[in-house]
């Protein structure tokens, strides 16, 4: 009798949980725009929940693993598993599926490099998706450029965006932004999940940005590993951690770009920016090389303090703009504020006479929507 | 007793099978060059077997699905599944894993578009891998080019290879090859799994090919669907199946390329080629438009017959070279010889006074190694 009651109680609890879930989920799911051609799933609803589906007839457990949470999916009589997440922030999210303990990409999506792997992602429609929409405006070209690096003795790859007018104005010369990805990402990120090319196409078409070249290279420097695990008691990041990429940037990449492309090779027409690890690299590299870079952008990657300026006094004369961007959720959590509170730092640096811009992306965290928006803001202030 | 004997018999059979397998497999596996950075598996040995590995602790069955065969993998005490295939041909192979009935990409590899999906692939080292190796030679650039199509009313994407000398010779003009993928593939194929950019970089560096531009677009024409399922009794491919891509090629792509790039816009400096479905499109498009294309290449995609020439007599005057390539295994099987035996057809067309080249890739089938080699041969005969 005790057993029967227990089973009934569990059954009612499960039924309640099931009904509650159904009541919560709004059934207006649409395919994610990052799905492979012809694939319906994953989908996203107006609550910004992600629903995944996978055929796995013999599996005993399938989970949707997104935003650090694993959501159980439910099997139907055909072996089709379906399940949805809690609401996600607007924008781009990496995720994966878990099939009987195996973490695998969802075969329904295009693949993106992040978290040190090529894997699935989903796009949650954003209120400001206009800024990176594919429109019928003149489009720049993204070039895959292979080059030999003297610093590393290897052939490396970068992507180079040239603006729409680049080919039709064969005598014009352009400023250059060196734009870096985050830790566990690579040189593909900004023109893929970042949509930097579409953002700049749209800004140029609207007359809101001057045309410039963007160079996107790989800042992951092996074998030393710029983001090696933190060891107890050691300063983090360790001294010299950005030197590997700094050397290849200054000795290989910039000379190559200035020789192959029609650039304006001076500090007033050269910018560096990056997200997260790329922002920290931007800080580490531009502080000591402000004669090379006249514009500096850091997105969710720390800030520059009065103490930094004291150690690099020429920064004040050389730099035309210091841009600091963060997601509001990052600031609320107090994370990713390496080197002190970024807002206070930026105000204090501004008070020293350096032009600054501090941007907060509302209701986003340490994620691509913050960086797309930061780039959108930064790009409008460059080379003006 | 009967049961005990049966178990013993099964046990001996399994042991025998196990020993036999171990004796067959040479333990000199090395990571595939298409693996993601830092990933050991999949691996390939000197027999050209592919070995895959996946952590799936709670799975009851994991299979390696390659070349149309599903190979059982074996679980160890840590939940790590490992298994290998029979020997594969040299070159590039699509594959997937099957976890308790779910077909998923192998999270160890880079991803490629084929079989109408983005999925895993493995590279079996080839004796002639030199032809597409990444070397320290001058490299051309592969450009992602977005453009508006009047024919379809959409924004389309193509990839454009410009040779190494393109930027440094701003007044030079170049011939153009329009190079098409196969069914279930897309515009990414030739510069990714096809390695057409590296093959041409190497040929130009060796003085074996003249520098030219390559345009790689998407020949999958929706919504009509060029490769819709065959219906009993209907001719295949159906009449007009290539008109969708023909219209966008002639009305959108070629005018756009000739206006944006420094081309030589005439028949003597314009070629079309493709693999499989792309070869069939090349046949369908160039036969009626030989005033546009002076060089024609079909790789595993049929051939041109004397009857074709009879219906298109101007082909003889206009075309400087007709190249037909096949894998030897395709010819042996008698498959993919649409419109009659390709060797006989090509000999007969040659006898009509048309310059032809017939190439057979040894020990390869309807697969990328055949097409890499065909392109390597074809490129050396272009625009000379």
UniProtKB/TrEMBL annotation, chains A, B:
Position of the signal peptide: 1-23
Keyword Metal-binding on entry: no
InterPro entries, per database record: AB_hydrolase_fold (IPR029058), Esterase-like (IPR000801), Ig-like_fold (IPR013783), Ig_E-set (IPR014756), Mycobacterial_A85_antigen (IPR050583)
Recorded GO MF terms: hydrolase activity
Top-rank taxon, per record: Bacteria
Alphabetized UniProt keyword annotations: Hydrolase, Signal
Matching Pfam families: Esterase
PANTHER family, A to Z: ENTEROCHELIN ESTERASE-RELATED
Identification of the protein by name: Alpha/beta hydrolase-fold protein
Annotated organism of origin: Xiashengella succiniciproducens
